[in-house]
Specification:
Layout: E1 3-5, E2 9-14, E3 17-20, E4 27-29, H1 35-69, H2 75-96, H3 104-128, H4 134-141, H5 144-154, H6 163-180, H7 193-215, H8 222-243, H9 246-249, H10 257-284, H11 287-290, H12 293-309, H13 315-340, E5 350-351, E6 357-360
Antiparallel strand pairs: 1-4, 2-3, 2-6, 5-6
Length: 361
């Protein structure tokens, strides 16, 4: 027999001003005392999977897009223009939808992930892309899940990763090692150590930013947070461009239509649409699960290079891709089982209606 269940959810605009409202979530289910919890977790799992899949595909393609944009544009200007335009667009959307201008404390809180994740994390990858193949940059970025797991473990109150997560990390790392030894796209050549170190530093910076956002007590719209992070990160990237002398040598007249289209994709699809999804995912999932996109991105980047630039793919490359995907499956499956075994309350913060944060009462 089918029944309708209405659940009460507590909505908070900020940690200091909590208001209780009633949201009606209708679950059509069989009669069972545990049905509401299982359906809610199931719906959340679908959202998590969809968000992860979107980030896997879109951000896996940004390495190729950055490579195309670099054909006629300098690195820090590419990223600075991208995030200033995208951040401005998101901020306008927030204001038009009834949001308020953020205060000084909001900007300060957003500046930390904006600088660490966007200016340093993204900027380092684009800068290193001048001398490194896009596949190498993507491979090095796969260090991110390892950094986040180790940092979580080292922080006060951090728990040792479970067996499933350790197996997933081992499979992903083994896939990365095979991929590096596969000889695909010049992977066996000598690369500038400075460029390699730059990307590694960027992954460390990104991991710190992800943990900062995860542990932050500030609540609000993922859209607003993305806008502020992009604007602060974009402004910092423009400063990097000035220090790197890019303004003196660059002219918009030299931008080709090919690079322009790549920039448009980076601004609209990879930034305006995807960064709010990422910010929601950081709040809704564990840092380790969120960081699995760094394992999948190299696979997407390599296959796109094969499709677009006719780069050769060895048998070792295909085998390593399978290991990487198995590693991601192991981590996500472990996280899903952990969510199902949690008590009555959902173990994550969910993005609420109208940019509010919903937490279960």
């Amino acid at each position: 027999m089918l029944v309708l269940i209405t659940s009460r959810v507590k909505i908070t605009r900020s940690p200091s001003a909590a208001q209780s409202r009633t949201l009606n979530f209708f679950f059509i289910s069989m009669r069972s005392g545990d049905v509401k919890k299982r359906v809610a977790i199931g719906l959340l799992s679908v959202q998590l999977c969809a968000a992860l899949l979107w980030i896997y595909l879109v951000w896996g393609s940004t390495y190729l897009s950055n490579r195309i944009a670099l054909e006629s544009m300098p690195p820090f200007l590419i990223s600075g223009i991208r995030f200033l335009i995208a951040g401005g667009a998101l901020q306008m959307i927030c204001l038009l939808s009834g949001g308020k201008l953020p205060g000084a404390r909001d900007w300060l809180a957003a500046a930390v992930p904006g600088v660490l994740m966007i200016a340093i994390g993204q900027g380092s990858m684009v800068y290193a892309g001048q001398t490194l193949p896009s596949g190498i940059v993507a491979l090095l970025f796969a260090l991110l899940p390892i950094w986040t797991t180790l940092m979580q473990w080292a922080l006060p109150g951090g728990a040792c990763p479970g067996a499933g997560i350790l197996v997933g990390l081992a499979l992903g790392s083994a896939g990365m090692a095979l991929l590096v030894s596969g000889g695909n796209g010049g992977l066996g050549a000598q690369w500038p150590m400075g460029a390699l170190a730059t990307v590694v530093a960027g992954t460390l910076s990104w991991a710190v930013a992800a943990l900062y956002v995860k542990r932050s007590s500030r609540q609000g719209s993922a859209l607003q947070a993305s806008a502020m992070q992009m604007l602060t990160g974009g402004a910092c990237l423009m400063l990097f461009a000035a220090l790197n002398g890019e303004w003196q040598t660059f002219s918009f007249a030299q931008v080709t239509s090919r690079s322009g289209l790549a920039m448009a994709y980076l601004v609209v699809v990879a930034s305006v649409i995807t960064y709010p999804v990422y910010n929601w995912l950081v709040k809704a999932a564990s840092p380790t699960l969120m960081a699995t996109f760094a394992f999948v991105n190299p696979v997407v980047a390599l296959y796109l290079g094969w499709l677009v630039f006719d780069e050769k793919m060895s048998t070792m490359t295909v085998l390593s891709s399978v290991l990487i995907l198995l590693g991601v499956i192991a981590i996500t499956w472990t996280q899903a089982l952990a969510s199902r075994s949690t008590g009555p309350g959902l173990p994550v913060k969910m993005a609420g209606v109208g940019g509010l944060q919903a937490s279960r009462t």
